[in-house]
TrEMBL record:
The keyword Acetylation does not apply. GO terms for molecular function: iron ion binding; oxidoreductase activity. It comes from Skermanella stibiiresistens SB22. The lineage of its organism: Bacteria, Pseudomonadati, Pseudomonadota, Alphaproteobacteria, Rhodospirillales. The chain crosses the membrane at residues 12-30, 51-73, 93-117, 146-170. GO terms for cellular component: membrane. It comes from the Bacteria. Residues 93-229 form the Fatty acid hydroxylase domain. It is found in: Membrane. This is Sterol desaturase. The keyword Transmembrane applies. Keywords: Membrane, Transmembrane, Transmembrane helix. GO terms for biological process: lipid biosynthetic process. It holds the Pfam family FA_hydroxylase.
Length: 279
């Protein structure tokens, strides 16, 4: 990846984020999929505040981001792709697909392991489902996710270009598939064969456990079908389904301080708090 392009990495990522966010926010106003009982002014300050906290946490705890690690791996000859000779385009495509599979596996782990679920459930506790839900993650989860991505990047010897493409895609598709937007009825079933749609991912945010534990994909939709975690629609339908987590339905839980400390509280899946598990 040319250094001239790398020097614009922050601008590329910020521009993609701002452009997709603005597009989805406008689309939600123009063609919402579901009415919202709790509006943007109640939820967005905390959800967007988490973006700032998460960014600072990653910068402080993982100073060298995944793209930088990819360049270091290339310089040191680390990883599979530096031991074999493949066309650059094939390395890029393969790396993007493998990274997406890794995030799918990570997502399942964050549901299955109680300690990890306590971090991830904050994402699910949002009482509505819109573009900011796709940005709502606990900073410790974000740091752990970055560590996992870095490990995959080093093991593969993934090209820096592939890592940048994947990071931009993951952020953009997360905002898209969490958006409260209505897609044309004939287009949506076709589109979900190629990418995760909002109707496909909304099932994952159901209050029902067996629906929450399905449709884990963020970017590519094939993993759920391949590994048997795909669910077509919620039992109550998209208009009738309840979002969130039963233990955190008080609107006071939408405050930023409550979101950051939520892992310390019990949600009914276990009888111990995170503090008790650690101590």
């Amino acid at each position: 990846m040319p250094n001239s392009v790398l020097s614009y990495e922050p601008l590329i990522r910020l521009s993609a984020f701002a452009g997709v966010f603005a597009l989805m926010a406008a689309w939600e106003l123009w063609a919402p999929r579901r009415p919202q009982a709790i509006g943007r002014f109640r939820r967005w300050p905390s959800n967007l505040g988490l973006v700032v906290v998460d960014t600072l946490a990653v910068r402080l705890m993982v100073p060298m981001a995944a793209v930088g690690v990819a360049l270091l791996a290339e310089e040191r000859g680390w990883g599979l792709f530096h031991q074999v000779s493949l066309p650059v385009w094939l390395e890029v495509v393969t790396a993007v697909v493998v990274l997406d599979l890794a995030i799918y596996g990570q997502h399942i782990a964050f549901h299955a392991v109680p300690l990890l679920w306590r971090l991830h459930r904050m994402h699910h506790a949002d009482l509505e489902f819109d573009v900011t839900t796709g940005l709502r993650f606990h900073p410790i989860e974000v740091v752990l996710s970055m560590v996992i991505k870095i490990a995959v990047v080093v093991a593969l010897g993934a090209p820096a270009l592939a890592v940048l493409i994947f990071e931009v895609l993951l952020n953009a598709t997360s905002m898209f598939n969490h958006s409260n937007v209505r897609l044309p009825a004939k287009l949506e079933p076709v589109l979900r064969w190629f990418m995760v749609t909002p109707d496909m991912h909304r099932v994952h945010h159901s209050i029902l456990r067996h629906e929450t534990d399905s449709n884990y994909g963020f970017n590519l939709p094939w993993w759920d079908r391949l590994f048997g975690t795909y669910r077509t629609a919620p039992k109550a339908g998209h208009d009738g389904m309840t979002l969130g987590i039963e233990a955190f339905r008080d609107p006071a839980e939408l405050r930023l301080d409550r979101l950051l400390t939520q892992p310390l509280r019990n949600d009914g899946r276990s009888h111990t708090t995170l503090r008790e598990m650690v101590l």
